[in-house]
Structure formats: structure tokens, C-alpha cells
Amino acid sequence: MRISAAAHELGTSPRMLRYRESLGLLPTPSQGHRQYSDEALSVARLALELEQHYDVSPAALAFAIRVLAEPSVAASVRELAERTGRLPTAAETERERALKWLGRSGVLPPRI
């Protein structure tokens, strides 16, 4: 299917499809005129659904994929999340696992 027909079917514009393609959110079409297979349209629909459901931009979704695909990027993002308090640190996570293993929950008494 050509890009204009694919865009119409997805309720978007050819320009937006090209943008999503440049971000890596669509399989790269073969050389020449852009032709979109049923699988490519399915991928585009999933990306659109994720963007709408989680209220994120195509660029944010593409970055999330990069975080999943590149361990160094994931580590940097995890560090930022820990330092901003959005994720527990590795030490806090290990402490919670130890408490769970011991059958305890909540806060340990302070050390003396």
C-alpha cells in the first residue's frame, strides 16, 4: 500500500508516517516509493495506540524503545530515576527483598 493510502487508513498524514519511520517506529520500506505491508500498518497502529494510551509523543515512544534496546541508555535512565526518587536504588531494592525473604514488611528498627 502506498504511503497516502496507508496514512488515510491510519487517520494520519503521509508526513507523520515519514516522521514515525525516521524515528524507527515503522519497519523501513523497500527502496523506491514507500509501500506499506499489512504488518507495517499493524506496527503503526500499535505505536499510535501506545502514544494515545500513555499520552506520549512519537519521539518519547522511540526513546523508550532505545532504552529497552541499549543497556547503556537504560543504565543512565535508571540512574536518573533513582536520583530523582522515581525508582528505589539498588540497595533499597535488595533491602526490601531481604525483608520479604525474612517474612517481614515495613521499616526495620534503627541501628544503634
UniProtKB/TrEMBL annotation:
Annotated ranges, domain HTH merR-type: 1-41
Pfam family name, one: MerR_1
InterPro entries for this protein: DNA-bd_dom_put_sf, MerR-type_HTH_dom
PROSITE patterns from the UniProt entry: HTH_MERR_2
SMART domains, per database record: HTH_MERR (SM00422)
Domain of life: Bacteria
Name of the molecule in the record: MerR family transcriptional regulator
Species of the source: Tenggerimyces flavus
